[in-house]
Structures are given as structure tokens and as C-alpha cells.
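ugh ok fine here u go
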Amino acid sequence: MSKLVLETNLPGVELLARGKVRDNYAIGDDKMLLVASDRISAFDYILATGIPDKGRVLTQISLFWFDFLKDLTPTHLLSADIATFPAPLPQFRDQLEGRTMLVKRARMIDVECVARGYLAGSGWKEYRESRTVCGIPLPDRLQESSQLPVPIFTPATKASSGHDINISFEEAASRIGTHLAQRLRELTLAIYKRAAAYAATRGIILADTKFEFGFVGDQLVLADEVLTPDSSRFWPAASYSPGGAQPSYDKQYVRDYLESIRWNKQPPAPALPADVAERTADKYREAYRLLTGKPL
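structure:
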């Protein structure tokens, strides 16, 4: 297990943003350093307790998928080898090892690209009300966690609070242009189908996932994190049973604990007991091991 990194400190390197999980730094005008911390958020708040190895898992799974998908789409990745990073980055190896990607700086598209193969989360909520997801009509009599007849593209945007807001394809097209929206729909579904087919060989159902894309010059690239437990629902295939929520390789233990203590979901966010943090860490590590066939 690596040391817990909740917040990086890289003197002399320009911090661009500190998100719920990632610290992003400017490297010149055309590159960025993405550092995945061990922070964890739930119900839109960063918790006081970190999850051991979480940042390493997110980064190493993303690297696995970037390589796996390289013939489908260009990506923003330049290197994950700290020895190749420009000065002064190598001197911060203790903070960066295993959790860092040097990437091309991209002009990000202001639409999140969500692919759904199963009915869960906000999709299930909308379906119960209208038999649609993002305006796409679906058959009657589907259950929570049912497999959809075909995977669907359901774009989303970020509200100022950080929540994802589902929008229709038509709304996405009005924001970014019809041609680009069509390209993103085709690419999102192609990546999802390729990844879901592979995950199935590893005993995992990829229920849904979200991607972010941007432009480096005129080239459309896959960016940010890819097919991680933070951006995807991974379910163990052996226990899959539609008709309710499924166990998943993510922060389920954290959400369950916070619900059990009846936290009012207002700041300050509580700390986690050590056993909840460690069981959550084990789920992240297990996701990496199952997907890649290697221990972290």
C-alpha cells in the first residue's frame, strides 16, 4: 500500500484546480499534470477520511483502458512515467508515484458522454416516472438494473453545484452542434460496447459509464479518467439479479455507512471508521485486479 495522499503540494508548479479527487497542474502552455488523490466524496461533499490506494487505482485503471482503446480513439495521455516528466516534477515522486498522468491540454467539450447498458441510478428514476431515459422511450415492465434492449447514449451537463444533469440528445446538439453530438454518440457507444464485452470476460458487468472528450488542436481526444469505479458502475456478474440495486466495485460501503449514521448531508462531512475506509479500498483494488488480471 502506498502512502495516503489527500492533497498534493508541488512548490513551483502552477495549481490549476483542486477537484473532489484530482489536483490538476499546468505544465507549460500545452500540458497538464493530473494527480488522482485518495480523497473520496459522497453526496457531493469531500469526506475527512481518505481511501488507501484509491488514487493509484483510478490512475492505473485509466492507463489500462487508454491502452486498450488506442485503436478506437486518440487520447490526451502523454506519459505516466515520472522519470520522463519535466523538472521539477521528478523530485515529488513520493506524492506522484502511480497516481499521475502527464497529458496534453485539451479544450474540453461541455457535455458529459454517458453510455447506459442497464437501468440504474438517475436513469431508473426517470424511467419510473416517464418510461424514458433522457427522452429516449424504453419498453414497459423493465425493472431496476434490467439490461436495456440496446445500449443508449444519454448526455449530461454539470450544474454549478457539481451535480450531473441529464439532457436529451437534442439539447446536447443545440449546445455543441449536431455533427459533433453525433460523433460523440457514435464514439461513446463504440467504446462502451468494446469495454463491456471485455469486462464480461472478466466476470464484470459494465452497467454504465461516462466519458469526457476534448480537442487538442483539431483532433478529438478521449480525456480525463476512463472506465474507473468513480466514473462507471461495475457489477459482479455472478451475483447479478435485476429487480433492485446491485453490489458494485465502488464507494458503496461509504454511502451505506453515511446513510446508517443518518448524516444530514450538510457540511461538515463526517470522518469514516477505519474498517469502512479499508473495505472500500479493497473494492477499488479488486476492481483493478479483476479488470487487468494483476494485483495493484
